[in-house]
Amino acid sequence: MNRTGLHVDWTRCDGRGLCVELLPDLLGRDEWGYPLPHRSTPGRLLTEVPPGSVADAEQAVALCPLLALTLTTEAAT
Amino acid sequence: MNEALWAAGRASGVTALALLTASVVLGVLNRSGRPLPGLPRFSIALVHRDVALAATAFVGVHVLTLLFDPLARLSVTDLLMPFAGAFRPFWQGLGTVAFDVLLAVVVTALLRHRLGLRTYRTVHWLVYAMWPVAFLHAVGNGTDARTSWFLEVAAVSLIAVTIAVVWRLSAWFVESSHARQELR
């Protein structure tokens, strides 16, 4: 099973909120509108996307107005 | 057949104006980052895309029907080169300009993930110039431009886009404007 990670390019993100709507289980919003992972792993920049949310994450990547999101997959060890 | 082409050419032109107007308003709303009741932000983005593509399809019908219509006396070069037409060349040329810009906007928007944000956004800004050009083409070139139903469509379109642009330029346009400006 591959692990999928969501990466936010903070130099691009403008906090428009589309990703938070599509991934409410993964992301919340701070008071300025920027997405905030509910759970973050110390030392890791990626937010882990559970298998059931991968399709929604792909939608978020496709629809992000600032093209700030990317998905990465890595083989589970 | 010619009657049908002529009627379809005019009807699709007016429909395209209305859909382009809706697309501009939806695009501005999309840029604000604000959802509507029952329509989340990502839906507004998708509706904006679909209305814009529908507008482009109607522009395509408008151009193709009039290309084959003898009354319009449109040639293939008129689709790409403005101001060389046979019938009201200036006003028709505005339509050519808007058509070519629209094609560029649609192609760059669909390929934005490949082209990158800068190219996509620069071309997308041209819409603010394209819409008035298309509007002037409709009012100046259309043979229905003096009828009351057309003037009503044109007036509503002009008011809608004007309101959208004024809102766009206001200080509190973006959803989080208040939160972000408090810290200054």
Task: Tell me what you see in this structure.
The complex is a heterodimer of chains A (77) and B (184). Chain A is built from two helices and five strands. Chain A has 77 residues and is of the alpha+beta class. Chain A has one domain (9-75): Alpha-Beta Plaits. A three-stranded antiparallel beta sheet of chain A has the order 4-1-5, with helices on one face. In chain A, strands 2-3 form a two-stranded antiparallel sheet. In chain A, a hairpin with a 5-residue loop joins strand 2 (27-29) and strand 3 (35-37). Chain B has 184 residues and is mostly helical. Chain B has one domain. In chain B, helix 1 (2-32) packs parallel to helix 8 and helix 4 packs antiparallel against helix 7 (127-141). Chain B is elongated and about 60 Å long. The A-B interface holds A 12, 14-18, 21-22, 31-33, 59-60, 62-63, 65-67 and B 30-31, 33, 35, 40-42, 45-46, 112-113, 116-117, 175-176, 179-180.
Structural class of chain B: mainly alpha
Structural class of chain A: alpha+beta
Helix content of chain A: 10-25%
Q: Please summarize the sheet with the most strands of chain B.
A: none
What is the count of β-strands of chain A?
5
Helix fraction of chain B, binned, reads over 70%
Number of domains of chain B: 1
CATH architecture of chain A: 2-Layer Sandwich
Question: What is the helix tally of chain B?
Answer: 9
Instruction: Round the mean pLDDT of chain B to the nearest integer and report it.
Output: 94
Beta-strand portion of chain B reads: under 5%
| Low confidence ranges of chain B | none
Please write the string of helix (H) and strand (E) elements of chain B.
HHHHHHHHH
